[in-house]
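Protein 1 of 2
SEQ + STRUCT:
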Amino acid sequence: MNTLKAGAPAPAFSLLDQDGNQVTLSDFAGKKILFYFYPKAMTPGCTVQAQGLRDVNAELEALNVVVLGVSIDPVARLGKFIARDNLNFTLLSDEDHQVAEQFGVWGTKKFTLRKFS
């Protein structure tokens, strides 16, 4: 997995948003982007994070920052997440996790089980 370095330009992308509209990196020229990658919409941890971003989004917008949430969820699930939690930022569907891989945030979970006596 390649990790994107701090300050490096974001990789170009083209994904569908919660309404099925095509969104590209160039749509946000001149703005700062806060990418919020999360594993699955409407799960406890992801919901708390999304609500936190929702609650500070006006402050971020005042600083010329756009929040983009990215997950492997299908478009329909993203729309439900927006509606259920009154989210005020764009969610993007990366079903094949290609963009997450470009950003270096996609990987297989690994667990180590140890036996202690």
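Protein 2 of 2
SEQ + STRUCT:
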Amino acid sequence: FALLQTSIERSFRSGVLLAVGVSLSDAVCAALCFLGYSQLNLTESFHESLALFGGLILVVFGITTLFKKPALHAQTDIRAGGRPGTYRYIFKGFALNSINPSVLLFWAAMVTLASVQHGYRGTQIGVFLTSIILTVLGTDVAKAYVANRLRSYLSLTLMIWMNRAVGIAMVGFGIKLFMAGFTMEN
């Protein structure tokens, strides 16, 4: 919720810069997962195991997100130092995203989804991951805009419901991926 908080407390521009940092971090994590995946033995049993593991990861993250209680006013030092520059917001977004261990696991699950569920290989996985990163960036920019424009309407209750929706979606995708591990054809 650093994106929403930054957009509410600072500006739309600041929120967008934070989102750019998050997307850069996502790109690095996705590339690491993709490169790691491409070095592994790609047997059928490996795909099944990867699907089960990736599905389990998504279910756990979905359940965690579903029951996570957000705080609209998390402690930050944004106000203390005046208006931070462009690179500071980008770095903050990159750092906040990079220190979250679930980000790397999420991208590992997405590589698994692309290869196991959709049967993508090589460049197709790269396009799939890039599409996700660009979609997330677009969504983050939209969230920054909405948060900045509707700052007086955002409430803790709304954030809780947003967490629930995201959690349910992640659980659903996780179950689908997990089930794909059991139904793979030779």
